[in-house]
Amino acid sequence: MRLKRTGFGWLLLSPTLLLLGLFGVFPFLYVVWVSFHEWNPFAANPEKVFNWANNYRALVFDRGFLASLGVTLAFVFFAVSSQVILGYLLAQAFMRDFPGKAFFRTIHTLPLIMAPIIVGSVWKLMTTPSIGIIPYLLRNTVGFDLNIGTSALAAFVITVIMDVWHWTPLVTLSLIAALVSLPPDPFEQAQIDGADRWQIFRHITLPMIAPALIATVFIRLMDAMRTVDEVLMLTGGGPGSATRFLGVHIFKEVFPRTNYGYGSAVSVIVLYLTIVVCWLLYVGLIAPRTTRR
Amino acid sequence: MATVQIRGVTKRYGGVQVMHGVDVDIEDGEFVVLVGPSGYGKSTLLRMIAGLEEVSGGTISIGGRVVNDMLPKERDIAMVFQSYALYPHKTVAQNMGFPLLMQKRPKAEIEEKVRKAAEILDLTKYLDRYPRQLSGGQRQRVAMGRAIVRDPQVFLFDEPLSNLDAKLRVSMRVEIKELHQRLRTTTVYVTHDQIEAMTMAHKIVVMRDGRVEQIGRPLDLYDRPANLFVAGFIGSPAMNFLEGRLATRDGRRVVETADGTALPLEGAAAEDGRRVTYGIRPEHISVGEGGIPVKVSVFEPTGSETLIFGRLGGQLIDALVRDRIEGEPGQTLPFRIDPRRAHLFDTATGVRL
């Protein structure tokens, strides 16, 4: 009560609020503001020119943007769902005891500590048709010619695989944490109650790890929606616009063309889409369980 | 309903043997309590009956079928865990209906059985609640409800009352007993609390170190404990043990303690001079004329009775008397021992003489 009266609590919070405002709220509002302007600071007229919602209106008719949105959603869907399935299976595997478990668990988390730009360049090396090991092996084993420079599908699939390679460990780690914290008794009880392995997964494990699982999916979803550096390094968004994901699209709008107003508008839309997708997931997965109460 | 036969069951974890040939016969409809101090193998035995632990040797049969290699779900048993093991994300009704759902029974049948079980257990109001919204006693009842909806051959209870407070434990004890009288399902119940064992069981199996110390009806164990362990474990407050030697004084057999006190006996089938442990329950000692003088250290009045702690020679002895006795610590009171109620054990082996 006394804290409330003197405002001393606000004083204690002020450093956090200041930093949050400085690095979070202000830039966000600034981007929103810029998105309503024509602004090319390196052009003949470097001034911001207010142009109402023209940037947003242009977006709707921008085929490049719409194509980019399509491949991004496909990328997010394939990458995140593969990561969740693979991550869960790996987490279950690491719940068991086997020789060398600690070693494998450590190895398996190494991709997480690599910078995306490095991941992108390493995968570029591995997939370049003339020198890469992946095209070489595919050619010599199954006779498949992998060329991410010419095949749109191949490029798309490789970006998904790269993302899965990079980020599955995150899912594994958070699911291991969730599984370890589960009480053992309900699982034994379920065995006695007559559930088989699939039923135990569906009725017991899945609902009990759902909070951790959904939080992980949200994190991965938001990250995947704004993937830039790895893909830019690997394919440059090509061939054509096969891997021109929204992040790459924004980058290409803003940096070579210095079209800051338009780039800001795309960013705002990406943020909005991310919120919408997460909200849909939330409504679809969590809300039905809470409202039934 | 079914019989349960446990024959020569052993359990090994790696090189360590924790259960050494346990034999127990459980009749159809019987309420059997496995009792013993914590960590002495009774829960392991129960989990082997449930199929949650492998049997290293011997056989376990339920209803005449050897179940050693059967999965828990094939054994037609229901179990209530100490933690209740409720599914936190399911409502009371869903928790109770889960075993039936797994058997793919029709929805109407599941609802009907859950409703009936809820009525028996007074849970009807709570069917839509989640476990976290219930008190400990209600959760306990939900766990029992989940067990009874399946109408299994055997109920297994693993220390089901240990997480409840003392008052609730007494009332749940009564409820479980009533439930058994109503359903007549064969029940195996594990507890470390000898009062639970005494009050609920048709038959008690006292276990220690992975061995059966004694099997018998509650009052038989109380009246004729087979050894020092059972004598000390069954009964509360615990039996007094006084060490001494058999002797004959004035033509009567007695146990003579180190300080020369003669403890009365009635018939003793062993030779004089043998080292023995004399057992007498506190409730079989009264205070009155002609008793053995005991120096009292503490009085514990509980209202209905008084517990008196004292020393005889160097040995502790306590008496539980109906009368309200008030006195000063340090005073001497005459303890009268009923010789017909005395127990005699061989000090070296602990076996009853």
Terminal Cα span of chain A: 34 Å
Spans of chain A of at least 5 consecutive residues whose pLDDT stays below 50 are: none
How would the global form of chain B be characterised? Answer: elongated
CATH topology of chain A: MetI-like fold
Helix/strand order of chain B, N-terminal first: EEEHEEEHHHEHEHEEHHEEEEEEEEE
**What's the name of the CATH homologous superfamily of the largest domain in chain B?**
P-loop containing nucleotide triphosphate hydrolases
Distance between the termini of chain B: 39 Å
Structure notes:
- The complex is a heterodimer of chains A (293) and B (353).
- Chain A has 293 residues and is mainly alpha-helical.
- Chain A has one domain (35-291): MetI-like fold (Orthogonal Bundle), CATH 1.10.3720.10.
- Chain A has helices at 2-6, 8-34, 54-61, 63-95, 101-109, 116-127, 133-141, 152-180, 185-192, 197-225, 229-234, 246-254, 260-285, 287-291, and strands at residues 37-38, 49-50.
- Chain A has a two-stranded antiparallel sheet with strand order 1-2.
- The two termini of chain A are 34 Å apart.
- In chain B, the strands form four sheets. Chain B has a six-stranded mixed sheet, sandwiched between helices.
- Chain B has two domains: 4-233, Rossmann fold (3-Layer(aba) Sandwich); 240-346, OB fold (Dihydrolipoamide Acetyltransferase, E2P) (Beta Barrel), CATH 2.40.50.140.
- Chain B is elongated.
- The chains are: A mainly alpha (293), B alpha+beta (353).
- Chain A binds chain B through residues 183, 185-186, 188-196, 199, 203-204, 207-208, 210, 289, 293, and chain B through 50-52, 71-73, 77-79, 81, 83-90, 98-99, 102-103, 130, 146, 150.
